[in-house]
Structures
1.
Amino acid sequence: MVNPSAAPRRLTRAWLEQASPLPSPVTHGVLERFPENVVQFGAGNFLRGFADWMLDVLNEAGLFGGHVVAVEEHQPAVVEALNSQDGLYTLLLRGVRGGQVVDQRRIVTAVSRALNPRAAWSELVRCFQSPELRFVVSNTTEAGIALVDEPLRPGQCPESFPAKVAALLYERFQAVRGDPARGLVFLPCELIDRNGATLRQYVQCHAERWNLGGDFAAWVTGGNHFLNTLVDRIVPGHPGDETPQLTRELGYEDALLDTGELFHLWVIEGPQQLAEELPFHRAGLNVVWTDDLTPYRTRKVRILNGAHTATVLAAFHGGLNTVREMVEDPVFGRFVWRSVFDEILPTVPLDERERTDYAHAVLERFRNPFVRHALLSISLNSVSKWKVRVLPTLLDYVQTRGTLPSLLSFSLAALIHFYRGERASTTESVGRRDGDCYPIRDEAAVLEFFAQFSNVDERDRQPRELTATILAHTPLWGMDLNSVAGLAELVAANLTTIQQVGMRRAVERLLAGR
């Protein structure tokens, strides 16, 4: 039994096997060793608080019997921590359900180990050659599923995610001699439209460019399943300032503490027979298998994700730090509310009650007192997020209303203001808020583009010229945004206002219609 007065021990399998019973309400998944039948690209907070947790629940219910090999190249500290903790970590799911506070604490045991593909490419190849492997899960952000022209270098890790998949699938194809029964099931969690189909298309492009042969190309399509999926759970991640108190309550140290909300939804577009291989529904999980996830995706991406992306950068420069602070702030709370109900909802192709009920539920989730969702965390890769989550709404609003949505247009000005920092490294720039530095994290090409404007003061350069240059850069937006009538002028005017009076006053004026 855990001694609360003893110094906390590091979470490991050996410790956990001897620590039962754990302090209430901590539970843990099964400690049985299972085959490594899942490879997961990404070991960040979201996948650990979503897919890995679901697989852990399936294992506990006796419905799966598998372990996850987590592949992570951008966070070496996470790889080290996972391996030092034998793949274990604690997930806290907290919120209010039926008026009652719910606080669930679970040690997830579904991950067996973690690999850095650059340091352990040959080991990852062996994972893909293994007959036990069946599923591949990924969350490489919206920018991760991209087609990058790169050569195949045998024995070396490719740069882009689709290229990695193509190279690894070719290794498997050779190992199983093209047996269609040995294909894999891909469950990408990236928030792009038709994520599975897009990943398959890019894998096929690499196979063609690398001259891997017609048999391999046919096997990729005929023997593997690239499923379109949609994920929905707010996972703020590490509990930050709560960590010392939680460590005392838990009775052990966990470098990978993760937090999330109670709500979860995974919509998977795929054949029913695959649902029986991953019988989430039998374990009481909110997973929907469907033949068309489009309505689910439009609702979620535009309302939940769109509300985040359209508001958090302005709120951060308005002096706020978390989503809850944002929605409870008298100025930015109205900014969020009106962005959702006045400009986003009219473009969602569902009946009014369904979209309105979902919007109210989303804003209630934003107020979860247990979720400290940092605005800076949400700001990661905001350019690609804005393109996917906000731009389609803006364009549909213009098409149906014949005018620009003023708040969503303002969000583009806030994004430009946020991104104009100085380069600090290949993966990060640094901006300033009230004299303090903050990190700007995005793809290197995005950071490089905005860095050229870091020392350009809107007062020294015509805002219209600056805005036109940024909006014309089609690699960012997928189109020349100057073609949207009036958008450049409106964004430039908003940038000027932000520069002159600050973000909070600019939003106040926006809401007042001035």
Note: The mean pLDDT is 93.
2.
Amino acid sequence: MAHILVVEDDQDIADLIVHYLHNAGYTTDRLASGAGVMRQLQQTAADLVILDLMLPGLSGMAVCRAMREDAATAHVPIIMLTARGDEADRLAGFAQGADDYVTKPFSAKELVARVGARLRRAGTGANGEAGVLRYGDIVVDADRHRVTVEGKDVRLTAKEFLLLQYLVRHRGRVLSRDLLLTDVWGYQYTGGTRTVDVHIRRLREKLPSLNDSIETVKQFGYRLA
């Protein structure tokens, strides 16, 4: 069962989110400030964090940045929840590492749907079982956020890991750059398709066995053979 950390200082909103998450089959922890988030994640790992932007003490932006800078939490999806919905705020949230952005007031059902979508992209469902993927001598362990080649660890960034996982799960399919951006970076990402090419190049560099396996489909995208 996937576990969600809800960080929201408005008790009524937090109660509503937790209620809908429990109905959807998730377990939860909740905090009313940003100061204790990293400590909480050290004590109890979370599969996803719903993070309010305007928090007392440590802001949601600062928490997001701290999570992305810590190897233990860099891979955890973050859905940022805020009343500030202008483009500059959204872009700032994505720049700090947020995976999705929900503006208040919001539909609790839509929020839960976004949680499910994010967990699927990260390889974790409501049952919390992400499993282990294998491709040749490459092993992708989503539960431990670990990639090994012949038993040796390969260090990947959070997005490199998610991209590799997505390619392996959809091996044999031609995947457009737009599809990869939507399913790996999120439909609100505005950085352009060039970032896909950059991350593919990094995967080839870090995992040489993929050099011939990742095929470039001219003017479209990629396919893992």
Note: The longest strand covers residues 3-7.
3.
Amino acid sequence: MKNIQNKKILIAGGKGFLGTALFRYFTNNQNVVWLLTRNPKNKQDIYWDGKTLGEWTDKIDLADIVINLCGKSVDCRYTEKNKKSILDSRIRPTKILDEAIAKSTTKPSVFINASSSTVYVHSEDTPMTESAGIIGNDFSENIVKAWEAAFFENKMEGVKKAALRISFVLGKDGGAIPKLATFAKLGLGGQQGNGKQMISWIHVEDFCVAVDRIIQRDNLQGAINLASPHPVSNKDFMAYFRKIVHAPFHIPQPAWLLEIGTFFLRTETELVLKSRYIHPEVLLEDGFEFKYPRLEEIDNLLT
């Protein structure tokens, strides 16, 4: 399947790691990409506040595709204030984009919204698929449920909707990889907890190509898992990092030590102790071929 070309694409939340990757990918393939941002700096940037309608809605009538990646990072302590901010930062942009599309004269054909694979329960031995995955009921899982509910609430004729249940995205230019590499070099690359929790991941190049395919294929809609078909245990994942950074030694990090560390780092142990065993059933059944299906096949993660 060829890459999409000569399309007009509007990305909200496009200044982060994933938005930057998609901007580069789509512009390299001769598409016009606009970025909705609170801090416009370049010619492709358009101001919006993520909460209210404004002049930015003019681009909705011109866009073939709208992609929403907005959402506060969950790398924080789950205080009541942060919980509210995490939820609001996802729901408000989703709803205002949906409202703008509903009111537009010429609607985009595709509306894609970010979501998260953390919607599924902790699982160390059972893969979570779109058709049979078990949806959880804790704080993080309920955030994703509310996010997807807000996205799919309003059905619009002629507008395909897809929610990306994104797993851990690997790429050298951002996300958690540079930080993990630094920790491993300092000897903090040991397994976390008992090391049995599964880590579902996807290389950033496969992420971009998968989004492209979702745009093109009419049958690819609804909630879609974005993850490699071969997740690995935390123990093996950390061993891979130690290998690629040539870590001289490593210190295992039991759960009790992680509780202390995350308190001082102002984050939560859930981010490393929850087992995310995700299977990309929908993509594989559609014939999608991953460039990096296995972790050991990635040779350019840090170079």
Note: The chain has a mean pLDDT of 93.
